[in-house]
Amino acid sequence: VTLLIGTQSLLPASFFPAALREGVVWWAQASGDPWLATIAAGRPLPAWWVGVTFVEVVFQLPWFVWYVTRHFSGSSASSSSASPAARAAVIVYCVECMTSLVPILAELAIGQPQLTDVERATVAGAYLPFFVAPAILLARTLAASASAPSSSFASPSSTQKTKKKKKA
User: Fold this and answer.
1) Which residues does 127 contact at the CB level (< 8 Å), separation at least 6?
2) For 99-130, what is each residue's pLDDT tens digit?
3) What is the pTM of this model?
4) Which of 87, 95, 139, 165 is the most exposed place for a label (fewest CB within 10 A)?
């Protein structure tokens, strides 16, 4: 999604094949998505949108490639066996993804009065998975971090319990 659609916010339209540009036009018309309609019309996007998209391309996309590569090689960065640094990277990524959705969802909720309720729900439904999926991954990673032995993310009480068990 980032490479095919998100980058259309940052790069000239001539950089993209007609089929990708037409896909954005189709979705904008079908859903009422105000940002993709702006891209489709060739108008400037709000600065906050460009900033969020820039972070998505520069930070989220490379991280996603790293995570997927790690995951499919059998070394999940969100598991309890992952290093604390790998789990920290997952946590930072998840929080950043969820945070980047806040202005989008807020704008949909209160900043786009021209949208009908159906359009608002359709567009929110398209963006919401990009909040929910990182939230689930964050919860799994935090749970794995809490159960990991000698984890730097473990709470002080769980660390003390682990030390007491080792002494016994």
Assistant:
1) 101, 104, 105, 108
2) 999 999 999 999 998 999 999 999 999 999 99
3) 0.77
4) 165
Buried b (16+ CB within 10 A) or exposed e, 31-66: bbbbbbbbbbeeeebeeebeebbeebbeebbebeee
Residues contacting 157, CB < 8 A, separation 6+ = none
pLDDT single digits (tens) 3-58? 888 899 899 989 999 999 999 999 999 999 999 999 999 999 999 999 999 999 99
Q: Which amino acid is at 5?
A: I
* C-beta of residue 63 within 8 angstroms of C-beta of residue 97: no
Q: Which token pair is 74?
A: 């059998």
Scan for tokens 């490639």, then name that residue. Answer: 65
Side chain identity at 94, as an amino acid letter?
A: C
Tokens representing 14 are 């001539």
The type of residue at 43 is R
Distance CA 55, CA 126 (A): 19
Sequence letter at residue 127: Y
Buried b (16+ CB within 10 A) or exposed e, 120-148: bebbeeeeeebbeebeebbeebbebbeeb
Residues 115, 120, 122, 125, CA torsion sign: positive
